[in-house]
Amino acid sequence: HHFAGLSDVSISGDIPVEGEINVPVGTPSQDKEYSTLDEPVKDTILRDLKAVGKKFVHVMYPKKSSALLRDWDLWGPLLLCVTLALMLQGGSVDSKEDGGPQFAEVFVIIWFGSVIITLNSKLLGGTISFFQSLCVLGYCIMPLTVAMVVCRLVLLGGSWGFSFIVRLIVVTASFSWSTFASTAFLADCQPPNRKALVVYPVFLFYFVIGWMILTFSPSA
Amino acid sequence: KMASSDGNKNTNTEPWGGFEDNIIQGTGSAVIDMENMDDTSGSSFEDMGEMHQRMKEEEEVADEAEATEEETGEDGEFLGIKGIKGQLGRQVADEVWQAGKRQASKAFNLYANIDILRPYFDVEPMQVRNRLIESMIPIRMINFPQKIAGELYGPMMLVFTLVAILLHGMKTSGTVIREGTLMGTAIGTCFGYWLGVSSFIYFLAYLCNAQITMLQMLSLLGYGLFGHCVVLFVTYNVHFHSLFYILWLVVGGLSTLRMVAAVISRTVGQTPRLILCGTLAALHMLFLLYLHFAYHKIVEGILDTLEGPNMPPIQRVARDLPVVATAAMNAVNATVKTLGVILKSQ
């Protein structure tokens, strides 16, 4: 019978054809809405924030865990980058020449630098994927953002000479922390004898960002 | 993969008519585009426009398929449901295979572009260190072509280091304002020098029939910047002019001699050798001079126009400069002051 064979090929109930396929268009909260339609937006946002927060904790205590790499996301880096760029904006809005680097400058340096480092590590034979590397480098900017906050607080009060020493120590510590944290994730994906070649551009990248933070002074 | 190509052929053997082949064999024929499944490997490079276009195509083809279904007749209607589901199974499998193939070819096209550069980054840290040291040691054998390594990792890292050192130098000279503009200038200067002068010397070498490739020239000039990095790193922190001149002659001179010897060893004839040697030496030495003085001076020029006489003493270092350098610096200063005035008036 012709149609008996057909029944073998027909889709039974447990092969999911609809509902499981997520189209990654737009924000992840839209994705979740597609499959969990009745969920309030607050739950969606909280879930994403929790994922981002978990990754922040991984950066603070850099162990060799693959959680940062496995489910990468670029929300954390974007948040950090925007925060840093806004804080480096400079105090006064009136005079456009004073203050510090413009928002676009910081943004471009961070993302362009991350792309260069990723390309470099891929060209040297790394096994990490493009967006995973962007994710790691972006999340490891967090110590520098914390240092920026501390620097701004220090600049709000205190004498000039002493504050520079404090800021120098804070920025140096956080920049070494960033480099060390990102190395813990990135260097695993390299052949063992080439780790130094990958670490050096990361060091330069965080050095430049640390330099921007250290030399920042809001216009009086 | 079981139904990838066979599924297309089997459709017409169905007694109830089946779907036409040309609907199924289209790449956008499935109702569901399984290529856009969420994958955490991070290698989906779809952009929005392409996805929208494909979705539109799918909608059109799905509408067409529905229209054709209605035409197959009523006797296929009951079996049509099962038939659709059976067909759907095969279509889905087919679409998965097509999607996988498409994604793989797209990824390959992206990575193939990177792979062009991959052999130039195939170095060990020991090799980089050795080449850095060798860039300061001129080799006197100019009658036989010298070996020049063609690698791009060392030169690129040196250019970025030079940018970082320039920025650091601007910090120690007390510049706080206009950081953004200066950063763009620093990056543009360093990369412009590396790429521009390499191209220019390669062009001259082509005219003078020298046996050197573009990659080797880029590599040679890139490693020649190591001397510049060292000199600038020292003199931005220790502000003695005599020290700078000594370092300029010794360190700059050594790295220039190394580059010149390598290029000359690959050229035949007195006049071509002289042309290449003179041009390369002049450009390389003058660039170091420019980096040391012009950045300080540009900074001071800008500070003059914007801040006026209230300047901290660190920026007012007394200098006794030779006449030529003073004239050059006055020209630069005047240009920058004009620029500052123009920008201020806007």
Nutshell version of this structure?
The complex is a heterodimer of chains A (220) and B (346). Chain A has 220 residues and is an all-alpha fold.
Brief descriptors of the model:
heterodimer, A: 220 residues, mainly alpha, 10 helices, B: 346 residues, 11 helices, disordered N terminus
Number of helices of chain A: 10
Low-confidence segments of chain A, ≥5 residues, pLDDT <50? 91-99
* Major interchain interface with per-chain residue totals: A-B, 51 and 51 residues
Q: Kindly report the oligomeric state of this protein.
A: heterodimer
Distance between the termini of chain A: 90 Å
Number of strands of chain B: 0
Return Rg of chain A in Å. 23 Å
Q: Provide the helix percentage of chain B.
A: 55-70%
Radius of gyration of chain B: 33 Å
Mean pLDDT of chain A: 76
Membrane topology (chain A): Multi-pass membrane protein
Transmembrane segments (chain A): 72-91, 103-124, 136-158, 164-186, 198-217
Pfam family, one (chain A): Yip1
Keywords (chain A): Membrane, Transmembrane, Transmembrane helix
Fold and architecture overview:
Chain A: It holds the Pfam family Yip1. Chain A: This is Protein YIPF. Chain A has 220 residues and is mainly alpha-helical. Chain A has helices spanning 2-9, 28-35, 41-60, 67-70, 75-87, 103-123, 130-139, 142-156, 160-186, 195-214. In chain A, helix 8 packs antiparallel against helix 9. Chain A is globular. The model of chain A is unreliable at 91-99 (pLDDT under 50). In chain B, helix 7 runs antiparallel to helix 10 (270-307), helix 8 (214-235) crosses helix 10 and helix 9 (241-264) runs antiparallel to helix 10. Chain B is extended and about 95 Å long. Chain B is an all-alpha fold and 346 residues long. At the A-B interface, helix 1, helix 6, helix 7 and helix 10 of A face helix 4, helix 6 and helix 7 of B.
